[in-house]
Design goal:
The chain is of the alpha/beta class and 334 residues long. It has one domain: 3-Layer(aba) Sandwich (Rossmann fold). Helices cover 34% and strands 21% of the residues. It starts with 13 loop residues before the first helix and ends with a strand. InterPro entries: Proteasome_assmbl_chaperone_2, PSMG2_sf, Rv2714-like.
Length: 334
């Protein structure tokens, strides 16, 4: 395979260019690549409901996809901190879920090409990896980078999925300024958005709010809403019907399990009251938080203890989005 072309980001010194190019292999069969949108669906410390992973799996299974870059996971992943699952069956090892980080070229339902960055968030060499992503943005003509993931939130599964949006520039997303200033643990996704903005590139992010009692399950409702947000922000035609059908089927099972416990039912009703009170705010500026005043809610630990016994078997713990059945067809958003 030919050596990857050097990635020049801000005309950095030779050692910095080498730091970038030794992190990935270019796939020559990808051909000439040009895409105005890059979707960042990396999964790592936080992807409640496996929302970003479900989106990545859905897009690569339903749309024409070609590999552009494959990153060297041995340089980027801490295997001892995040041990990949292995399968032991009939006295022998039969499978190994090898971690990956890849950049794919995807064609939407109208033929528009976009880039999809997916796989595990790097544990190591954040600066070099972020430089490589920014170099790809500049090399392939990306005009807007859209990051997605799920976050656990005190919301009920019986209400529409809400999304927290943010961007490098005012006007890129329509959202009130409700949080002020907070400091949170960093992520590669956040660092990519920050440095893209500092380099003069457009970047937006959408965080789907997932019921925290379902954070470990595959929550298709959040994934479907993230696809809608990507389609709107990126002016793309993306299939979403299969995710919506999976969400409807899962909702029936969730409701069955919730209704089996009066304690869990009470928690969900309290979350519904809180959600509805929030949405009834007179103006967006008054909707300051989803952890609002109308209901005295139990703590996340209390909710988790009450729900765990009833929802633990909602999704097979050994099943990952990559192992699920492929999605075919479905409604298209544009």
């Amino acid at each position: 395979m030919p050596a990857p072309r050097p990635a020049f980001h801000n005309a950095g010194p030779t050692w910095r260019r080498q730091t970038v190019v030794d992190l990935y292999d270019v796939h020559p069969e990808a051909g000439d690549v040009h895409a105005r949108v890059l979707v960042n669906a990396l999964t790592g410390a936080m992807d409640a409901g496996h929302a970003a992973a479900l989106v990545a799996h859905h897009l690569t299974e339903t749309l024409e996809t070609r590999r552009v870059l494959t990153f060297h996971v041995d340089e980027l992943v801490d295997y001892r901190a995040h041990r990949p699952p292995m399968t032991f069956e009939s006295w022998r090892w039969t499978d190994y879920e090898e971690p990956y980080i890849a950049l794919d070229l995807v064609r939407d339902d109208e033929g528009t090409e976009l880039l999809l960055l997916h796989g595990r968030e790097p544990d190591l060499r954040w600066n070099g990896f972020v430089d490589a992503v920014i170099a790809a943005v500049e090399r392939y003509g990306v005009q807007r980078t859209i990051s997605i993931h799920g976050v656990p939130m005190g919301v009920p599964h019986t209400r529409p999925t809400t999304v927290t949006a943010h961007a490098t520039e005012h006007g890129l997303v329509d959202t009130p300024e409700i949080l002020g200033t907070v400091q949170v643990p960093g992520s590669v996704t956040g660092l990519i958005e920050l440095r893209l903005g500092r380099a003069g590139h457009q970047a937006v992010g959408f965080s789907a709010n997932v019921p925290h009692y379902l954070a470990q399950s595959q929550y298709h409702q959040a994934a479907a809403e993230l696809v809608r947000q990507i389609a709107r922000s990126g002016e793309l035609a993306l299939p979403v019907g299969d995710l919506e059908r999976a969400a409807s089927e899962a909702a029936v099972e969730i409701e069955r399990q919730v209704s089996a416990s009066p304690e869990v039912t009470a928690v969900v009703r309290a979350l519904e009251q809180q959600y509805d009170a929030f949405m009834r705010g007179v103006s967006l500026e008054e909707r300051t938080t989803l952890l609002a005043e109308p209901v005295d809610l139990p703590s996340a630990e209390e909710i988790g203890a009450a729900v765990e016994a009833f929802l633990a078997d909602h999704t097979d713990p050994g099943e990952s989005p990559e192992d699920g059945p492929g999605d075919e067809g479905g409604t298209t958003l544009s």
